[in-house]
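Before a colleague's protein record goes any further, I have to sign it off. Thanks in advance; the entry in question is below:
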Amino acid sequence: MKTIFNQALIEKYDKPGPRYTSYPPATEFHQGVGHEDYRRKLKESNVKANPLSLYVHIPFCESACWFCGCNVIISHRKDVTRRYMDYIYREMDMLKDNIDSTRPVVQLHWGGGTPNFLTVEEIEELFGKIEDSFRIDVDAEISVEIDPRYLSEWQLEAFRKVGFNRVSMGLQDLDLEVQKAINRIQTYQLMEKVMKDLRDLGFKSINIDLIYGLPYQTPEKFKKTIEQTIELQPDRVAVFNFAYVPWLKPLQRKIDPSTLPPPEDKLTILKMTIDIFQSAGYVFIGMDHFAKPEDELAQAQKEGTLWRNFQGYTTKKGVDLIGIGATSIGMLYDAYFQNYKTIRDYYLAIDGGKLPTMRGYLLTEEDIIRREVIMDLMCNFQCAFDKVERLFGIDFEERFSEELEELKGMEEDGLLKIHDRKIEVLPEGRLLIRNIAMVFDQYLKTKKEQRFSRTI
């Protein structure tokens, strides 16, 4: 079922809303949840003994990309990693004291920052420490984010040698004028070479990130970037909407706001992006993601088993995500936790013998029920009443009578259809999936201030 771009409906429903990498969203995290809660919840999670997903944050970058909203440290000195890695190892030691070591790690992801800021020796050392601390499943999905501009063949070979089988990398835009305006020069020839090297080394899946809404972008220019991206044949593509928020991300002050494309051009770019990728055979997974039909994301969505976490879409529902390193987020079945964002606070917590938990959220039963509904809609474009009733022993129509009444307006607009005891999102509703999911969000009803990006 292809996604349909309906500009009138998009303009009608366009408003701020969560991206639902979690429910409740991270805006509900608070500092009343700390390291003792995390320790307790980790031990409780051993009873369910769900498989594990590990995320390791490497915050260092060699140069600043002016559009970036990530938690990064810019440095040309390679020796800055030594102290940070020693603290990561100390955090891992604390975690393994609280986690049943027989639980398999079915996912491992290194993000950043730039994980290929690490030397070959550090890549091997860090991976070895993870293997010593946890049990990595033989079929684990092991992925890493890389910056092609600072990647050596030795690093790439080291990633593959230790066990990485998936790669994600930013391309953003291939137009030179746009690249200069965001301080990220990256040629098509470089991308072509890195893609060939990745394929030759046998990486199973390659993801490329693009961004629309950057300075000097036009629909004509971005069309060329899309076409060149398709020539590279990535397995997955993420096309993110640039959020210009210099009051939150001071680095963005280096971007001249007068050079940003107007809203009408951004909508044109979005429509064009969806049309071209779908015409090229990619499946629109949702919001800003595309995948080849044979890719695991597309297959999971087809089977109704796709899920979301703080890394985005995932095929691994029912795993406990453990965040390692500064700013990392952990997601257990009924609790979320985030580490301190600054290196200084992260170090101080570990020096004090504490898990470096800055804030978090403990879920209620109502949160867990609503999370199931929201994630099913977000990921699989449907929600079957019977499935939710079996999982939680509720009467769906009684429990969500107000929400079903609210959805009737969206049903009249052709965004969805309620039939055969299920909610089915229609082609014109797929781009507005966040709006549909928001109907089931209890927290939005009590919020006066909307601290979210716009849904389109």
